[in-house]
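Here is one chain, start to finish.
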Amino acid sequence: MTDVKPLAVELTGVPGPKVTGVPFDGDPRALWRVAQDEHPLDLGEISTRRRVGFDGRKKRGLKTLAERADLLAELQELLWAHHISAPRAEKSAVLKAIAGRAPALDKSHKKRRSELFDGEVEKALDSLDPGPRVLLVLQGMDASGKGGMVKSVVGTMDPLGVDVTAFGKPTEEEQSQHYLQRIIARLPAPGHVGVFDRSHYEDVLVPAVNGTLDADELALRVETLQLFEQELVRHGFVIVKVMLHISAKEQLERLISRLDREHKHWKYDPSDAQARKEFDSYRTIYSGMLEATDADHAPWHVVGADRKWYSRLAVQEILIAALADLNLKWPAADYDIEFERQRLLTA
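Its structure:
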């Protein structure tokens, strides 16, 4: 259930890797999409242990995860190679194709954006370098596996082409700014894969649960995020958003395990206990927010997180699909290969 198609841009060079042997029975672009679930979305009705599209067990899942890691790494390298060495006209064509996934920008969009973004945000957005890049947004309750996802899945890619940001509580300086400024400052550069461990969505979730913003103010923030992501796509961002859906029972076991192991004490925060009291509230807010901000150009995927191996396999495959859909090619050499070979042999 997605209207976004792979890019069909005529490129020169060597074809990139073929994506075969997809381990899931179904399209990874759609299997976990919020749009697949009943409306209105109720996360309480979605199993945190569901293994959509995969009938294997943990052993097979871990083996598949390892086998597909090289493909993910190669696709990420291809993205970087395109940014560094592809002809300018081809880079522009790919950028235009990605930007075309966002809704057409008209006067009403521009006017509304100017009303919701302050001058500093507008300036920061306008100064972004255009170019293809991927942004993976990871959201989820405490202990849902965001950090492990970065280590186990994202960590298999070349670290020189990956930007990871773990957003915590805003600093005093950040609190004095528009809430999008700290987000924009950590966006990945063209050719990179960026990962947000928590993200701009915290600026809806936390105020909603704490009651610091009323319903109208929250609606404005949701609209702001919708327009923000549209603008990112126009700059060449491929946005993939994943909510790691964990149960209260599994979360409790993981938090307790942090207290039981001395070398994991640093991962526990006393505020985690308070957050557990608000587990249901967070889940309710998540349900409405995910559905409101799901879009083909910035899709939300709800992945069951009680089984870590499964959630990692799912996110890996979602990333593979997002990168493969760019249909990039390895840039052709712009020098005489045989001449350079002889130079090396006689050096």
